[in-house]
Amino acid sequence: xxxxxxxxxxxxxxxxxxxxxxxxSRELQCRSCNFGFLFELLExxxxxxxxxxxxxxxxxxxxxxxxxxxxxxxFREGDMIGRDIADALTLSDDAALEIVREWGVxxxxxxxxxxxxxGIEKPVTVDLFPAYDDDxxxxxxxxxxx
Length: 146
What we know:
alpha+beta, 146 residues, globular, 4 helices, 3-stranded antiparallel beta sheet, 30% strand, 8 strands
């Protein structure tokens, strides 16, 4: 049974009928916040309350960011859309991103740093989940660490 997570509000759901959301569209939408799409996971994932979720396309460009990303990075969604995720967050290493894109495997617990909008380097843990649909892409979960 597919498990989904909303990149915006982080609510998890199990879709039993392939139909979710409020709009009457066949596209999966979040029942909690009506965000435009859900991200399918192979296994359920429980993000920390301070985790920010970012969805990127198959080329690594940001498609959407959820709650918590602005608080963590200082970047609003509009500042990041269309930009390469590694460049937008100035991640210390993009090797894990490339592995997930090339091999379609998830990478959890990547200890990286990002640079906030104000230029502060912040240590973070990054979890990467590949998309299992025809569009490709991935879900990037960024959690601050001390």
